[in-house]
């Protein structure tokens, strides 16, 4: 047993292992999960660009909806760090904590970029041809 074992599991950037397992962990499951990953990542940075514009224009409710939607679609990919970052930002928006919003937005943007990078890497290694 390692002395460095954390008291709680580290939050993941991206992992579809559980999703694959629940879907049968076979070639058919791999094809379906690859499509889910690809579809979830198609918008690339567009949601954050739209949310950033909404924040700059003080359309906080609209920005919050974008973050909530992003959290749902990308969170399904095991992106626990992104989910945690989004929840913090969404809470700051609800509470109108203006000073916290820019750094929390930057943190979420960074997490999203990591998710996209890891999803792209996963797809290159695992996606069946033609997906």
From TrEMBL:
Signal peptide: none annotated. Pfam families: Hpt. Keywords: Two-component regulatory system. Residues 48-115 form the HPt domain. This is Hpt domain-containing protein. The lineage of its organism: Bacteria, Pseudomonadati, Pseudomonadota, Betaproteobacteria, Burkholderiales.
């Amino acid at each position: 047993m390692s002395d460095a074992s954390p008291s709680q599991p580290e939050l993941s950037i991206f992992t579809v292992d559980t999703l694959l397992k629940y879907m049968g962990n076979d070639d058919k499951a791999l094809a379906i999960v690859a499509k889910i990953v690809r579809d979830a990542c198609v918008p690339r940075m567009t949601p954050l660009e739209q949310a950033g514009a909404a924040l700059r224009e003080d359309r906080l409710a609209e920005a919050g909806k974008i973050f909530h939607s992003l959290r749902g679609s990308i969170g399904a990919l095991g992106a626990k760090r992104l989910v945690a970052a989004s929840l913090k930002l969404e809470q700051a928006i609800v509470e109108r904590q203006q000073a916290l919003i820019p750094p929390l937005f930057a943190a979420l943007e960074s997490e999203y970029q990591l998710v996209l990078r890891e999803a792209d890497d996963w797809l290159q290694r695992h996606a069946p041809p033609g997906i």
